[in-house]
Write a structure and sequence with these properties.
By secondary structure, the protein is an alpha+beta fold. It has 18 helices and 14 strands. The protein binds 2-acetamido-2-deoxy-beta-D-glucopyranose (5 copies). May be a cell surface adhesion protein.
Length: about 425
């Protein structure tokens, strides 16, 4: 009975995953894995309540360190906020695959594993890392890196291992971390600009702070927000053009770098297509196209294409990604748009001048005319050249591991 139901469920899941190709998520379901073990029901329940379960499901090559109901009772007796609870539990999700065998064969007997807590951007310094050490007598110790070298929990047993996608193990107790347990700010209390400034988008953050667009971003956090912030080098090169825009143009340009929904990286990867932005307003489309380019996710406007080169934060309902270039909407920079014939005079077509027909209430004055296209430095590709050199062109996300996994999957895919 139960077996056939499980089989039916797997078939359904298989069909769903096939349907979702080439999405690489949904290969495992932590909720379903843990549901088979009543001793982890509390841990499982809180993975769902804190919304960590879907984040675990969409990642690959991870290890979940579960604690039994008694261990969870200790944690719950601290009466933490849900945000803090989420941080503590995310410290128990290692962003690498460790099964029993690998745990007992750690090179040099010790390793440092990045955790999902580290990936949230909430952890400072080394507090998002867990130190794994092989101990005497075949034991394996786990300890948050900021725990002063005291081993706080030990490996108990394997719960389930799906090489090399997910390993679920039991550890003896909750990993103590004052930083993870500290009351976590809700997403709406998060300081967007401080976060961007601290992670390579200082110029964009400062530009935003001086503009009403900052409020638009704030107002959208709670209901879901994804920001694409150009890195500092890209932004510095763009500032002369930015300064040339009208007040409304400046606001639209900044708002063009946000979309009013939360999109994880895998979400972006699997939902390519035309997307509205925070600048979209009636006749002013201000849209762009999300498109995969090999392992990269690119954002294409009619003028130029930017690439995501880093993840600053990715915790529902907020994601912030760094771009290698500023996004140039055709509504503001139509003169830079590639034209089929080399037209000497940038005569704006009625279509490109989308501002004029229907002025909206939000952006009253039509943005300033676009910059002339005579100077080669103004050409969008001039920006590309000096800006792709930074960031090593590498896909920096969880220390490149994620990129590596995607890359290998890509090769696998090519060989099919
Ligand atoms: C591991 O994940 C990949 C990618 O999602 C999937 O294709 C594969 O079937 C998974 N392996 C197992 C054993 O579940
Ligand atoms: C995971 O499994 C749980 C319990 O079986 C189910 O409620 C949930 O919808 C599943 N999630 C996904 C993404 O399949
Ligand atoms: C892990 O902690 C132990 C004990 O403090 C220390 O000796 C070891 O160097 C640490 N491992 C790493 C990789 O930092
Ligand atoms: C956020 O941080 C910036 C500095 O980066 C500061 O100027 C601003 O006032 C802060 N905003 C809030 C709402 O605290
Ligand atoms: C700014 O606008 C002026 C007048 O339209 C133009 O001459 C100048 O080249 C523009 N500068 C930039 C950097 O776009």
């Amino acid at each position: 009975m139960q077996l056939s139901r499980a089989a039916a469920a797997s078939v359904v899941v298989l069909c769903i995953s096939l349907f979702l190709l080439p999405s690489t998520s949904d290969a495992h379901n932590i909720t379903r894995i843990l549901a088979k073990f009543p001793e982890f029901s509390t841990f499982n329940h809180y993975l769902t309540v804190t919304q960590l379960a879907p984040e675990i499901n969409r990642r690959e090559t991870i290890t979940v360190c579960a604690v039994d109901n008694a261990g969870m009772a200790d944690l719950l007796s601290k009466h933490l906020t849900l945000g803090a609870l989420k941080n503590v539990l995310s410290l128990h999700v290692l962003l690498d695959y460790f099964d029993a065998k690998k745990l007992h064969e750690i090179t040099d007997g010790t390793a440092l594993a990045a955790t999902m807590f580290q990936a949230t951007g909430s952890a400072t310094g080394s507090s998002g890392f867990v130190n794994i050490t092989d101990l005497k007598g075949g034991k394996v110790g786990f300890s948050p890196e900021d725990n002063g070298g005291v081993v706080s929990a030990t490996f108990v047993k394997t719960v389930q291992a799906i090489p090399y996608n997910i390993s679920v193990i039991q550890i003896s107790t909750i990993l103590p971390s004052p930083e993870a347990e500290a009351p976590a700010p809700g997403p709406s209390q998060m300081n967007l600009t401080a976060l961007m400034s601290a992670h390579g988008c200082k110029v964009f953050a400062e530009t935003l702070l001086a503009n009403p667009a900052e409020q638009t971003f704030e107002d959208n956090i709670e209901s879901g927000l994804t920001i694409f912030c150009p890195g500092d080098d890209a932004m510095k090169g763009f500032m002369p053009k930015y300064k040339n825009l009208s007040a409304a143009g400046k606001q639209s340009l900044l708002e063009y770098h946000g979309i009013p929904i939360y999109q994880s990286l895998s979400g972006l990867r699997s939902s390519n297509g035309l997307t509205n932005t925070l600048a979209t307003d009636g006749a002013n489309k201000y849209d762009f196209t999300v498109q995969n380019d090999g392992t990269d996710v690119t954002i294409k406007t009619k003028i130029a294409t930017a690439k995501i080169i880093n993840t600053l934060i990715d915790v529902q309902p907020l994601a912030i990604y760094e771009l290698n270039k500023v996004l140039l909407p055709k509504e503001l920079f139509s003169a830079l748009a590639p034209t089929p014939s080399p037209a000497p005079a940038p005569a704006p077509t009625p279509e490109a001048d989308a501002e004029s027909p229907k002025p909206s209430t939000k952006h009253k004055s039509p943005p300033a005319p676009a910059a002339p296209s005579d100077s080669p430095a103004d050409a969008p590709d001039g920006d590309v050249a000096d800006q792709t050199a930074d960031g090593n062109g590498a896909f920096r996300f969880n220390g490149g591991r994620f990129g590596a996994v995607i890359l290998s999957l890509w090769f696998l895919f090519l060989h099919l």
